[in-house]
């Protein structure tokens, strides 16, 4: 359904692929309270654009006016979000196609979107993936720990693809869905 603020409702927020987003939503809650006329959808998109720019990525021109869904009825219904792949017999490529084809993404767009793993990390307590900390995440910034896809996980660059291809560092996570890229 696009950027409609649905992530703040169940089943979107509680889905395994979205584990940990409660932390991000909590960070945005004071902004929403201060600017109640800004839709959640616009606020989430604005935060994403600001994060990309702060990490050295391009400035993303914003268009405002997104409408929020008002309740869980506007969210994806159970069954539309595929279950996490862990323990599944599906191949990783089949899995990410199932997830993203339903949103209209083709293979090329899925690869581009996967490049977002250049930024950030996984946390064992949120997604069940990774380790508590690595040589790249033990000192933070912010909340320390987790496992990153790249050594420089706060900089917007092409390192996800170069690290993925090299597969030379055991302190970096490579999920099955990354490896199939």
UniProtKB/TrEMBL annotation:
Domain of life: Eukaryota
Positions of the Plant heme peroxidase family profile domain: 38-168
Pfam families per the UniProt record, alphabetical: peroxidase
UniProt keyword list: Oxidoreductase, Peroxidase
Cofactor(s) it depends on: heme b
Molecular functions (GO terms): heme binding; L-ascorbate peroxidase activity
Its EC number(s): 1.11.1.11
GO biological process: cellular response to oxidative stress; hydrogen peroxide catabolic process; response to reactive oxygen species
Annotated family: Belongs to the peroxidase family. Ascorbate peroxidase subfamily.
Protein name in the entry: L-ascorbate peroxidase
Organism: Dunaliella tertiolecta
Lineage: Eukaryota, Viridiplantae, Chlorophyta, core chlorophytes, Chlorophyceae
């Amino acid at each position: 359904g696009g950027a409609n603020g649905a992530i703040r409702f169940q089943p979107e927020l509680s889905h395994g692929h979205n584990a940990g987003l409660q932390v991000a939503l909590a960070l945005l809650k004071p902004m929403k309270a201060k600017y109640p006329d800004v839709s959640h959808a616009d606020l989430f998109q604005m935060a994403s654009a600001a994060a990309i720019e702060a990490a050295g990525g391009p400035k993303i021109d914003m268009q405002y006016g997104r409408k929020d869904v008002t309740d869980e009825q506007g969210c994806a219904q159970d069954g539309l979000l595929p279950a996490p792949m862990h323990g599944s017999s599906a191949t990783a490529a089949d899995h990410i196609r199932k997830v993203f084809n339903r949103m209209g993404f083709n293979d090329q767009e899925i690869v581009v979107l996967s490049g977002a793993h250049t930024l950030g990390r996984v946390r064992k307590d949120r997604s069940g993936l990774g380790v508590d900390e690595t040589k790249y995440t033990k000192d933070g910034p912010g909340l320390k720990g987790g496992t990153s896809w790249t050594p420089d996980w706060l900089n917007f660059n092409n390192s996800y693809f170069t690290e993925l291809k090299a597969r030379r560092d055991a302190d970096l996570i490579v999920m099955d869905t990354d490896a199939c890229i």
